[in-house]
Specification:
alpha/beta; 7-stranded mixed beta sheet; 3-stranded mixed beta sheet; about 15% strand
Length: about 260
């Protein structure tokens, strides 16, 4: 097991293939700033030994949003102040390893979007979601708007963004924003990560990418070719041979990622 620390983010690589990313900015309730996002983006570089990601916040809060002191007018180069957030969350969303957000306490603004960028969200009864850009005079990124819409539907996404209403854990579960809500959310999130990390990495990453491609409408020739390539690669892999052998021999598979 290895662990690195830096201001705002902790990165831990567990022996079971789970990389844990912990936001640690307690004075600002884990609000994101540019340095934290740069650190997070660096930790999201794909690595063969990383088979699942667990994203969490230190203390009792997941993430209170984007640090407003870092949000100013657009730069002279045309970049918007939250472009670094958009780029980082796209990197998380497109990471080959599946991701789980452990959401305890508040997930506000960018924290909401961070959780939504993960493949799964496990919450606790005290979890609260809030999207406040309408109160701040900000038009949220199209990537974030689309992400929320895919999760909860257009009408409910409009409710969240245009009214800035709070969504408690029960509603979040009913709306599909949370996949699980339990008292022992940490144990449930750890178990889910262990399950994901225990499967064939190529199959998991290939299906994750396929889901992303299938979200595009309509599919073009290049997308269809990529889907076929992902399937062919998996069928030809050593892990596919191992999976079949383990099934026939009634034993746990030993996947190597090859």
């Amino acid at each position: 097991m290895t662990m690195e620390k830096s201001p705002g983010v902790e990165v831990e690589d567990r022996e079971d293939g789970v990389r844990v990313l912990t936001l640690s900015n307690l004075a600002r309730r884990n609000a994101l700033n540019d340095a934290m996002l740069a650190r997070l983006a660096a930790a999201l570089e794909p690595a063969p030994h990383v088979r699942a990601l667990l994203v969490r916040g230190a203390g009792g809060t997941f993430c209170a949003g984007y640090d407003l002191t870092h949000l100013g007018p657009p730069g002279e180069d045309g970049r918007l102040p939250d472009d670094i957030l958009v780029d980082c969350l796209l990197k998380l969303e497109r990471h080959p390893a599946p991701s789980v957000a452990l959401v305890r306490g508040a997930a506000v603004g960018a924290g909401f979007d961070l959780a939504a960028s993960c493949d799964f969200r496990v919450g606790a009864p005290e979890t609260v979601f809030l999207m406040p850009p309408a109160k701040l005079g900000i038009v949220y990124s199209p990537e974030g708007l689309a992400r929320a819409t895919r999760l909860v539907g257009l009408s409910r996404a409009k409710q969240l963004f245009l009214t800035a209403r709070k969504l408690d854990a029960r509603e979040a579960l009913d709306w599909g924003l949370l996949d699980v809500c339990e008292e022992d959310a940490e144990a449930r999130a750890d178990a889910l990560c262990a399950t994901l990390a225990g499967h064939a990495p190529g199959a998991v990453s290939g299906m994750k990418e396929s889901f992303g491609l299938l979200g595009r409408s309509p599919l073009g020739d290049s997308e269809r070719a990529r889907l076929r390539e992902l399937r062919a690669r998996a069928f030809a892999s050593e892990d596919a041979k191992e999976g079949r052998a383990a099934f026939l021999e009634k034993r746990p598979p030993r996947f190597t990622g090859r």
